[in-house]
Amino acid sequence: MVAVVALLGLPLTVAGEGGAGPADVVSALVVGHCALRLLRQRRRPLSRTAAVVLGLPVVGLAVAAAGASSATAGLSGLGRYLQIFVLVPAAVALLIRDRADVRVLAWAFVALAGWEGAVGVHQYVTGTGASYQGRLIRAVGTFGAQDVMGMASVVSLGLVCAVGLALGRGPLRHRLLAAGCALALLLPLALSFSRGAWIATAIACAAQLVLGGLRRALKVAAVAVAAGMVLVGGFGVGSALLQERVGSITRVADAPDQSVTDRYAMWAAAGGMWRDHPVTGVGLKGFPEHRDAHAPLALSAASDTEGGGEAFRRQPLLSPHNMYLLVLSEQGLLGLLTLAGGWLALLALTLSALRRTRRRTGPGLDCALVATGLMVWQLTDFMYADIGGPSTVLTAVCLGLVAWWALLSGEGAGER
After folding, report:
1. What sign results for the dihedral spanned by CA atoms 317, 322, 327, 329?
2. What's the structural domain count of the chain?
3. Full residue range of the structural domain in which residue 243 is found
4. 286 occurs within a structural domain
5. Of the chain's two ends, which shows fewer C-beta atoms within 10 Å, N or C?
6. pLDDT at residue 406, as a whole number
7. pLDDT reading at 276 higher than 90
8. Taking the CB of residue 224, how many other CB atoms lie within 10 A of it?
């Protein structure tokens, strides 16, 4: 599982054209290894609750795959959704043995975020990043301009893990190291210029701080605000860009830029598809085919990308960049209820396990806060993003870690 995370630090080789990357291949090996292990041990792998929560999305996915425009689209979409939301999360949950494994995975996320963040800061300083307002300064890490959200997602998840580890009850040196990593990751996150990642990270970290203790939350918030002022104040001309980007968050309704206008248009298209096919949607991978029939004229249909080691190209807009609307348009209410219902069940069970951990005042608070933060971040980020790109496999690993904490940590294996 650590190899899945580590391989995402390699330079992107699929050039944004789709296809399985090294991390996807290793994730398939993880699933195969887990299946062989269960067959050898001849034991019931999951409790009834765990089987229902993790297997619930299969119902909506099967119906949506059957309604796809072609068998190829249905099977490829079904395989991708099963990988990200069913198979890999179940394998990760079953292979995690105890809290020590959770911490190893969390530190792997932090390490990957540190590497990608360092590459991203170098891109900003040297002007070799992706294009942003006519300048090649947008930090994208090794993911390139075709996946501008990749580095932002990786750094955000690493920051959330670092905050969870810092707020736990582990050794002081570990908590100080985690806190230092969290502060360091604020810089590359800012230079990603990703408004969705900023919002999701702020909400997730705020939830972790509140759940970890209000008094400590106020202290950490004060330190974070001070660090943010230092980072922004030290950028010079970069601070103006950041201030403009932050300010644009509050202008998405009154004076949206073209990227926001396109997003609104794609959201409207997704809503139109759902109204035409309310129960089962238009079928897996059906959004691009039905987009133009439902999108308003304001949609530009493609965005310009360049930089980060790649030439200029027009990248078509093939999804609504909202996971909930993507599921609603392609899988209908049935798919949304089964998929998002499983996510909400995981969140509720994660919070319940967190309350039990706090009552015991023993070890494990760091794991609880990591799992809670990851789930909150993912649910929030899905309002601004959907699956796609090499970094998507991290979503599967996150869900598996959360599933272990929510569903299996109380079965006697998580006492360390």
Report:
1. negative
2. 1
3. 45-252+320-408
4. no
5. C
6. 94
7. yes
8. 18
- Hey, what are 72's tokens? 């190829």
Query: Residue 230 has what pLDDT?
Result: 66
* Residue 121: inside a domain: yes
Q: Cα dihedral angle (224, 256, 379, 121), rounded to 10 degrees? A: -50
Start-end of H helices in 250-364: 258-276, 287-294, 323-360
Q: Pairing relation of β-strands 302-307 and 135-138?
A: unpaired
pLDDT score of 402: 97
Backbone angles phi, psi at 310, to 5 degrees: -125, 150
Helices 172-191, 148-166: inter-axial angle, 10-degree rounding? 160
Q: Which amino acid is at 327?
A: V
The pTM of the full predicted model, rounded to 2 decimals, is 0.90
* Distance between start and end Cα atoms, the chain: 19
Higher pLDDT, 406 or 15: 406
CA 252/CA 62 separation, integer angstroms:
36
Is the pLDDT confidence value at 252 over 70?
A: no
Q: Which structure tokens are listed for 288?
A: 């691009």
Predicted pLDDT of residue 85 = 96
CA distances (Å), 55 to each of 52, 86, 251, 341, in order? 5, 6, 40, 11
Assigned domain for 270 exists = no
CB 193 within 8 A of CB 149: no
Tally: H helices and E strands in the chain: 17, 4
Q: Which of the 8 DSSP states describes residue 171?
A: -
Q: Which two tokens stand for residue 234?
A: 């030290």
d(C-alpha 144, C-alpha 90), whole Å: 30
> Which residues are registered as beta bridge partners of 313?
305
For residue 219, being part of any structural domain is answered with: yes
CB 287 within 8 A of CB 318: yes
- Is residue 384 scored above 80 in pLDDT? yes
Per-residue model confidence (pLDDT) at position 343: 95
- Work out the pLDDT band at 414, boundaries 50, 70, 90: very low
Rounded distance, CA 307 to CA 302, Å? 17
pLDDT, mean over the chain: 85
Mean pLDDT, residues 385-403:
92
